[in-house]
Amino acid sequence: MAGHSNNKALPEGIFSILDTDLYKLTMQCAILKYLPDVSVTYAFTNRTPQMRLSRTAFGWLQKQIDKLAKIALTSEELDYLKNTCPYFNDTYLQFLRSFRLRPSQQVRVSFAPLEDTGSQDDVGDVRLEICGRWLDTILYEIPLLALTSEAYFKFCDRDWSYKHQEEKAYKKGCRLLEQRCIFSEFGSRRRRDYHTQDLVLQGLTRAAADGDARGWKGKLSGTSNVHFAMKYGMVPVGTVAHEWFMGVASITNDYEHANETALRYWVGCFGEGVLGIALTDTFGTPTFLKAFKRTMPTPANSMADDKKTLIPGAASPPLPPMDGDSSTGLADERSYAQIFRGVRQDSGNPIEFVKMMRDFYQSQGIQEKKTIVFSDSLNIELCVEYMHAAEEAGFAPTFGVGTFLTNDFVHESNGQKSAPLNIVIKLSSANGHPAIKISDNIGKNTGDSETVHKVKETLGYVEKQWAEGDETTRWGKSENEASKASVQEG
After folding, report:
1. How many C-beta atoms lie closer than 10 Å to residue 159's C-beta?
2. What pTM did the predictor assign?
3. 170, 165, 135: which is closest to 39 by C-alpha?
4. pLDDT tens for residues 330-355?
5. Burial of residue 363 (number of CB atoms within 10 Å: 0-12, 13-18, 19+)
6. 3-class DSSP state for residue 3?
């Protein structure tokens, strides 16, 4: 029997509103400012469909979703945000203080057994949909994904234990730090459970302390999980997700200007140089770079251009301040590529992405060293490989390492891989219009297929498929899948 089943004192479920990724809060802040009345839906996808919940697991999941209604920001959490995240304005913090999730009204979840015998052991597919105002529903994604994973590994795959998890994370952290990698923990959404992520952070912080003592050049720069950042005295890390670009595109139904519009409102909410890592691949990186090189509207040029990048019904984002050194009194004209500190790579071939970004910045005459954040299914070897490639091209690389840290287990009975679930929740509509994501890898296309096809035609999108980006086996195959593959290969 797995060791985890005997420990009754371990926490289960979600008990803090901050047990989520930072970028969900930053996007909620921007939505409050500009798009508070937009209605949305979200859809759940299991990219590992052979890994299904039992009826017992589903019943536990339902109860945990209901409990989300009881969660509220505490006074200590409010103080932490005030002191640690200065980009959150008072209006947003007061909103968050009184914010409550209402799962009975906003979340629809059902269980479809493959064969309904009425037994608690029946396995089937979970159907999950979220609907409501964007402002009110944006914080569901991370908790629901974490709860679904916890349900599966609490009731369905139980042949594992927490044994050596802290030590494993410590050793991984040491190897990354020794190799000079600057990295953050990004594992909330697909963690095995809360306790696993807690053990991982214990191991990583111990590695970071030892690394400092030994003079290693690498650095643990934080965690994307705000609750754990608070618990361990770390910096919460993150900027923006695909969801922001998807929502803006869906609301405006203008995919040609969606990237630029999203960037403009982001800077309008937080200011230049704040939360300044841009995500490039929502509609393909080549399309994004066309917007990235454009000049941000200023008082001098706003009349000519800015209407294309304004969201109907939303407050207009502020224009940059006047340049005090200019005799004309005009604002300094700069492109988004100049304004943003760097970019995040989250799909497609990372080495090709490095080359593309190097060529782009050179073509724009930008000599400042920019950051590339790599965040797509990383392990130690890939971090080191991408670090060398990025540094050789003149970038400062950093890494967001997720599932490799928070869901890396083997079956106790035979030592075989206990594969993680690969599950996602994505925005599926906004104000009644489909919301889609194309990315730099066809395996990560999401949303209405007809809209995906039309947008690809509109943008002149060139189809890409990365052999190492198979979404069904990103972190290893389950034993059943591995045995099937060996039979087929034989």
Report:
1. 16
2. 0.93
3. 135
4. 457 899 999 999 999 999 999 999 99
5. exposed
6. helix
